[in-house]
Target: AsmA-like protein
Amino acid sequence: MKTPNAKINISRNRKWLKRILITLAVCILLPLSLFTIGWFNRDSVIDMLQAWYAENTSGTLVIGKVNASFLSGFPNVGFTLRDIKHTNRDTITDQFSTLKIDEAKLIIGAGNLLRGDFIFRKIGIKNAEFSSEVISNRPIAYHQQLKQDKQKDHKGFQLPEWLNHNGATVTLENIKYISKDTVLNKHFDLHIHKFKASFKANGTQLNGDAAMDVTINHLGFNTTKGSFFKNAHVTGSPKFSVDVENDRIQIPDFPLSIDDQTFQLSANFNLSESNGYEFNLQNPTTDFQAVKRFLNDSIFSILKDFEIQKPLKSAIKISGKFAYGNSPDIEADYSTTDNEITISDKFRFKKVAFTGNLTTDIYKTDSLKTAKKSPKDIKVFFNSLNAELEDVNVAILNSYFQSTPEALNFIEANVRLKGTNETLAKLIETDNFDFKGGNFQLNTHIVGDIPNPYQVLNKATGDFKLNNTRVVLKKNGLQLPIQSISIALERETSILRELTVKLPNGEDLVFTGTLKSISGLLSKSPISPTTSHISLDSENLNISEVIEMAKEFVPDADANVNDRRTLHETLDAIYSQFHPQFDITIGALKYKDVVITDLKSKIELIDSETIRLRNFNFNYDDAVTTLKGNVKVYPPESGLKDAVYMNAEATSEGSLQVFKELFNIELFRIDSGRFKFNGNVNGNVKAFNELLNNAKGDLTLLDTKLYYPPAEMDIAIDSLALFVNNADIILNQFNLEIDEFHPVKLNGIIKKFPNFLLDDIKESGSVFIKVTAPFFDGDHLLTTINSFTRDSIIKQQKTKRALHNIFKDINKFNPEIELAIDSLKFRDLITEKIAAQIYFENDSILKLDHLNLNYKETIANIQGDINAHTSREDLLNDNPFDLDFSVQVKGKSKDLNDYLKTSNFVFKSGDFEFYGNYKGQSKNLKLLNSEASGDLKIGGTLVDFEAADLQIPVDSLHIEINNDLATLKTLDIQLPGKSSVVFSGAIDNFSEFINGAAENRQHSSNFSIHAPYLDTSDIKEFLDRSESTTKKIEATDLNLQKWKEVLTKINKSFYPSVAVQVDTLKHNNFNITDFESQLLFDNKGLFKIEDTQLDFYGGTIAMTVEIGIKKDKNTEVTIAMKANDVDLHEMVTHFDYFKNEDLKQAEHLGGTLNYNINATGSLDNEGQLNMNSLNGFLSLDLQNLMLYDYKPIMENTPLMKDERFKNLRFRPIVQTFEIRNGEILIPRTEIQSSAMHMYVEGRMKLNDYVNIWLALPYKNLKSNDGLALPEKTTYEDAGSKFFIQFVQYENSTKARQQKLKVKIRLGNRKLRKMRDSSN
Model:
């Protein structure tokens, strides 16, 4: 029998067993289901990846294997993708990329998978390599533009659609990333050992953390400057938060380890439209040496010579924008105390303390930032820097270094140095000098771009002082005691205020001057060596004592060193350090027993062996001597004994008496004068006799008086230059003055010169003489010769010889004479640069052979002779001189202006030729019986007629001249096109015309101008072609007064009469035939255009114009014009119907026009007509006027049929209009046409007002077929009328009255009132 409790226990066990079985079934079936779902959706994952790949990139994607897993992502489905390969060639960016992934794990929710939503919760990539490289032949601007276009697609922060937005984890392990861009010079190489990041969403906020372990092989933003973080190991575990709504990412402080340096890093990213980033790093124990390794090559090269031994305190802020080309702003603060700094392993600073900052934002205003900011900008500022360099105290305050593209190494610094001179010598790189004892002090302000540290003093201002020291020449131990040195630093050129040397005699030797590029003293191989200009001014100086003082501290063992070697070493040291020039002024200079006084010298060391004597002036025994040249101090190894050689120009001056007894001169006597030696000295300075033996040069006699006994003539010689060479004498310069003539200079070669000086030598010599003179007065010569009357000749035969006898004496020498005179005056004409060959045909005839004249660009050749008669009979004749010359001249036309002394016209360009002949005789300084002829041809010239202020381009001009009558044979002005002009004429008294003279009588001219065909467009083209050679006259208002003056000058210059004839004159489409006119001036101050006749479109026009050219304020003008039988149809056709298309389309236009104008008026200075001055009459006779089918009239006549106006014909319109003070009075004029009958009456004034009335009889309104002309009738018989008034007042103050108004009036009361006021 079973108890109830047993049944209950069995039931409970079964229930638990059932539950366990169900749980096991779920645990087994659920994963199996998930695996089954995943397994059968493997292809879907691949399809999704392929679709995403096709949408977002190009190239090829290969996935080797896909496995499903239910354990790794439970309760989600996991997929493992293996052997993924991707290759792509982007033809737009020219980028080639590859990707290889060994394994990628993707975790996705089962529900998402079933729904086809591929949203991953976890992504893990392991063992992957990515590489990309841009290789392109396109220009860099193309790739830069791609970058700029790409950044325009800014979308803020967005998570990928395939990543779970509620939370996800991304893991990377053993990932290698390499990216190169050879165009934009970029290279990035990273090895991600391990990286894991996960986040969870909280509303619009994403919170997460990350852990990274990365090696940065290259971080090359600009490979031309190297890479950052080369092989640096970076680790860190930052947290982050993302504000999805505002597109912001924030990373709070976390320790970032870079190799053995740890920085506290925080960051903020703004991914909105105002995108940007900001990094803040702090490290209180910054290792400067470690940080240098993180920098790129260009920055490292700047800092490589600097070593800071102890850590620094640093804080860095980096901010910028995510935009191509954006340069980040960097702000850094740094400080240290009690540190040590080494520069180039040479300078070791101790007890270094400084504070400062670094920034790349150096411009204060936005405008400057926009214009100048660049990635190269940097500024390093030191508030203070104090240090010790051995025993030198260094203090630098408020100083900075700044680098920009404009100034790479700009420094502004306040520097103070103070210490011993021995330490200073160590700082200066020199092998030449050293300091013993004393102190120095430097206070300076440095400002400027300094490319090299050794050039720092060239940008400095301030003071340098050095006291109580001895300057030691290292090579030989010479020492110079310096009491003080004071230098004022003035950037490139510093001032040596004083360098004081205490002399043994108790006096001070003080040097002053300037030092250029003083920074050159700091370096052994300076970029710009120091040059100096030193001045020494002393009353007395004993060179021997100075040498002994310099040797005082030399050890005894070196005391006997060769002086020559010591001198050479001293010069070498001074030159290499200072490259000096010296200005020396010494009252008395003593060396051993030799004393020279008044020494003034400028000397320069041009190299370590050569002293240049720019001038070395001194007095010795009352002789003044000047030396200019070089002194060469050869080194001891040269092998030359006592080799101190001089090669110099030497001058010495004294009394001529020293030479008085040297020569037995009988031909002439030297009474007084001074001598001057000017030559060269060459030889060893220590052997004075050698210098004298090698002296060679000029011996010049100055202020010398010579007496010429044969002619009993005194000759004053300003200077006589002789050069002695192998017994011959070269006559360099001999100034000859004869009576009151301008002096001439004689140069030449005298062979066997003693033969002419000594009477006991009978052998003759030979002479070549070149005569030069700056000026010779030919008129004065004629005056002198003609003054030799008979009585004066007899007298002069007793007292002195006549000029022709001097010619005879000169001829005895059988000379060959070359003439070179700068300017020659003859008949007040000056000819320049005369060069000729002259010889004496006999004792009285001077022959000129090939006398050439060169003036500017003109060459002239003159041949002829001058016959100076020598017999008594000839001298008593009225014509003592005969002249016969032929002239040939070729050159530039503008040179004629000076030869002809033209005042009326000036030649500006072109070439000319002149051939002429002149014969004459002289009497009382006047030329008699002269005959002149010539032929002048000028081509391609621009003639500036200055009197008229006109310029005329002339192709060719040919003038024949025969005894003052100039005939114009050819005046060729070539016009383009078919136009041509022919000129002819003549000018009498031609010499008076070209010289502008009109004292005795007036010349006159007659010209004719004939043009078979003349087109004004050809004239314009001709002027345009000549624009480059004509005057450029600025466009200004017309100055009529000036043109009146021009016409007056033309009249006074030419007194012309001009006949003008043009067969056909064309202007645009306007043709005039048979044009004739006469241009002339009268004696009443009028310019007249008379007898002007021309054919004008079937008729003729005759015109006369008179223009007043007196100097009145206004210009009076009178015009009379008469036109007969002008064909209206022909005229309108040629004027293209006045550009009126309707008129052109009219069926017919005809008529005959006759008019007669007689009017007077005045023009103001601007050429504007004074309307109030216009008076006269205009008579009009218009016959047979016809106008058929003119649409504007036909279509705009209300109340009347169009056919009425189709064929308009008019009765003759005859009327005379009066012009009274500028007002045109229109009397009642009847106009009868086939369509309408009317009367016109009124008055008007141009640019002022219009008041015209039309009287239209009412019978016009009757029907009319427009075929018959109305009968002639009177105004009264025409019947009742209505009136149309046209009224306008242009100058009214009321705007409505300024417009033309048309008023219809039924009465004419106002017309009668206007009519009464006109009477």
Q: What stands out?
A: The radius of gyration is 56 Å. Residues 1226-1319 form one domain. The mean pLDDT is 76.
